[in-house]
Specification:
alpha+beta, Aminopeptidase, 342 residues, seven-stranded mixed beta sheet, 15 strands, eight-stranded mixed beta sheet
Length: 342
């Protein structure tokens, strides 16, 4: 007999044991109790109750999946959406993961996945997920290459070559920020008009002060919110995450978006990362043509692409999706050891 339900905070020790048994690699480092409490159970203004779901057989957990709920603006309409995370299933119950994913997709208008494990990417098309719009491109820039090399996760014969390459790139001048700067503020102090910014040219996730406040409650990694100002005028918002060694530009938006404005704003964001002690690399993700070009022109280096898989595909079609790091767990993937891209 199978049973689908949410988990409660007091069940976390047993859930961690289940996840540890089926997780491996850098992802297993995110199984810190305080991190999972924040991911699954921390109150959110846009969601009631737990965001962690399990499928049980005879009282035993056989599959787990958690949701990252949001709302997506598609032209004149808004739909509910989620990115699913921490999807694992017991090998002894081969259909459990599939059943659990199906149940979650019925709860939202759109379910999507960016990147993910090789197994996930192979499985998703079988569930009806299809690539939507342009892929999400990852960009990075080394900013303190000598310090970066000391705690780089890969120490082999290529390390001197990596240092030389990163040193050459780090001294390449950034574009100018013009009259733009990033000022630390609380999301609740930002004008309501700023949260309704038009985006960068694609379907976009709704932004709100409450959503940003939720991320500021995270401890692994820590977050900081900034108001982007042009000539002293409030002109955009910026959310940064700081896992060991990195500064992640997890979300950035402007009240009057243009290519030139985004170039200046991304430079201001990189400079905000440089001011943070212990940040040796900047990371950013962009999927719309405007943001991808702005990233290159601001001084960031293209690293790789990840397909944006959506279900049902007909809801999105070929429309581009704005996919900042905050749209999925790439914003807060955490490892006690630095994990650099460059």
């Amino acid at each position: 007999m199978t049973h689908f339900r949410t988990t409660a905070r007091e069940e976390l020790p047993a859930l961690i044991e289940f996840l540890k048994r089926l997780s491996s690699g850098p992802e297993s480092a995110t199984l810190l109790p305080e991190h999972l409490i924040w991911k699954y159970y921390e109150p959110r203004a846009d969601w009631e109750g737990s965001r962690s779901y399990v499928l049980e057989e005879d009282g035993r957990i056989v599959a787990h999946l958690a949701t990252m709920p949001s709302r997506l603006r598609l032209g004149s309409r808004t739909v509910t959406c989620t990115h699913f995370i921490d999807w694992v299933a017991d090998p002894g119950a081969p259909l459990a993961g599939s059943v659990l994913l199906r149940k979650i997709t019925r709860m939202f208008d759109v379910t999507f996945c960016i990147g993910g494990s090789l197994d996930n990417r192979r499985l998703l098309p079988k569930f009806g997920f299809q690539p939507s719009g342009r892929p999400a491109a990852i960009y990075a820039r080394p900013i303190r290459p000598f310090r970066q090399v000391l705690d780089h996760q890969t120490k082999d014969w290529r390390l001197p070559l990596r240092l030389a390459r990163n040193l050459a790139f780090s001294v390449t001048p950034l574009a100018t920020p013009g009259s733009w700067k990033a000022v630390t503020v609380l999301p609740r102090d930002v004008s309501a008009k700023l949260w309704d910014a038009p985006g960068s040219g694609g379907a976009m996730h709704e932004r709100s002060a409450a959503k940003c406040e939720y991320f500021l409650h995270s401890k692994h990694p820590e977050y900081e919110f900034f108001l982007l100002e042009q000539d002293g005028r409030p002109s955009g918002g910026l959310l940064l995450a700081f896992p060991p060694g990195q500064g992640r530009i997890v979300d950035i938006w402007l009240s009057d978006p243009s290519l030139e404005a985004f170039v200046h704003a991304l430079v201001a964001a990189q400079r905000a990362c440089m001011k943070r002690e212990g940040v040796h690399e900047v990371m950013f993700r962009a999927s719309t043509p405007m943001l991808r070009e702005a990233a290159q022109r601001s001084g960031l280096r293209f690293m790789k692409e990840d397909a944006i898989m959506t279900y049902p595909a007909k809801e999105i079609g070929e429309e581009c999706i704005e996919a900042p790091l905050i749209a999925d767990d790439a914003a807060y993937l955490y490892s006690p050891q630095s994990r650099y891209l460059t």
